[in-house]
Amino acid sequence: MNLFRSEEHARNWGGFDDSMSSGLKPLAEWADIFSNPFFRERGRRDYISWTRSDAGRDAFIALRERLPRRDA
Amino acid sequence: MADIELLDRGYTAIMEQVVSTGTAPHFTELAHELGIELDEANDLVHELVASTPGWMHPGTDYLASFPPFNLQPTHYRVTVDGEQRWFAQCGLEATAIRWLVPGSTVQIEAPCLCCAEPIVVKMCDEEIISADPADVVGYTSAEVGGDPSTRPFR
Questions:
Q1: Crossing angle for the helix pair B38-51 and B27-34, to the nearest 10 degrees
Q2: Alpha carbon of B82: minimum distance to chain A alpha carbons (Å)
Q3: Closest partner CB to A23 (pick from B112, B136, B139)
Q4: Please, are residues A20 and B153 in contact by the beta-carbon 8 Å criterion?
Q5: Where are the alpha helices (DSSP H) in B36-127?
Q6: What is the pLDDT of residues B15-62, one digit of tens each?
C-alpha cells in the first residue's frame, strides 16, 4: 500500500502483482477513497460506536465497494 | 470484551495523544488515564488494534500501528503545519491524516520504492495542494483489509 512516482514506477516495482492491477490508481483517486466517512470520522469521541451505527455500516459498505479486488 | 463506552474512551485517548505528540500511550498509562485495571487496559488496546485495524509490535504489548498513523517509523514521514512528528501506516492511509487535523497542511514525504527518488504530497482538508512529481500513484498488491495475520508485513 504504497506511493510511487508514476504508474511506470509502480509496475517496475518488484512487489507489483498483475493479478492486483486494480490496486493501481492515481493519487487523487486514492485520496477520494480515503475521504469516506470511515476515515473522516476518526476524530469523533464516539468513533467506535459510530462505526457500529447504521451510518458507520453504510460508510464501510460504500468503502468496500471502491476497494480493489484480486482478479478472479 | 470491553463495553462500547470504554472502547470509545480508549480509542479517543490513544488517537488524541498520537495526533498531538506522534506517540501512543503504553497500556499502563492508558489504565491510569481511563481509571481502569492494568489487565483491562492491555486487553482494551489489543481489542482496539484489532478493530481499527492496526497492530502491536509482534510478541510485545507495544502499539506499533494505529491508523492512519504508525508509531514505529515508516518511510512515510508526515509533517503537519511545518512540524515533522508523525509517520503514516502506509501510503494510502497517509492521505487520510488530513481529516484528523482539519485546516492544517499535511505534507507526506516518501522515497519511491522503485527508485528511491522522493515523492512529496501536500494536502489540506478536501484539497491536494501539490504532488511532486505530478503523476504520483498509489498501489496495493494486497486486498485492503485482508488477512489480519499479515497486516504488519505487507
A1: 110
A2: 21
A3: B139
A4: no
A5: 38-51
A6: 999 999 999 999 999 999 999 999 999 999 999 998 888 999 999 999
Q: Rounded to an integer, what distance in angstroms lies between the CA atom of residue B105 and that of residue B127?
A: 10
Contact B96 A67 (CB under 8 A): no
pLDDT tens readout for residues B88-144: 999 999 999 999 999 999 999 999 999 999 999 999 999 999 999 999 999 999 887
The b-or-e profile of B27-57 (16+ CB within 10 A means b, else e) is beebbeebebeeeebbebbbbbbeebebbbe
Looking at beta carbons, which residues of chain B come within 8 Å of A66?
none
How far apart are the C-alpha atoms of B154 and B151, rounded to whole Å?
6
**Taking the complete model, does pTM exceed 0.95, yes or no?**
no
DSSP label at residue B46:
H
Q: Which residues in A lie closer than 8 A to residue B90 (C-beta atoms)? A: 1-2
Whether B106 and B80 have beta carbons less than 8 Å apart is answered as: yes
pLDDT at B154 over 80: no
* Number of alpha helices (DSSP H) and beta strands (DSSP E) in chain A: 5, 2
ipTM of the complex: 0.95
Confidence grade of residue A12 (pLDDT, cut at 50, 70, 90): very high
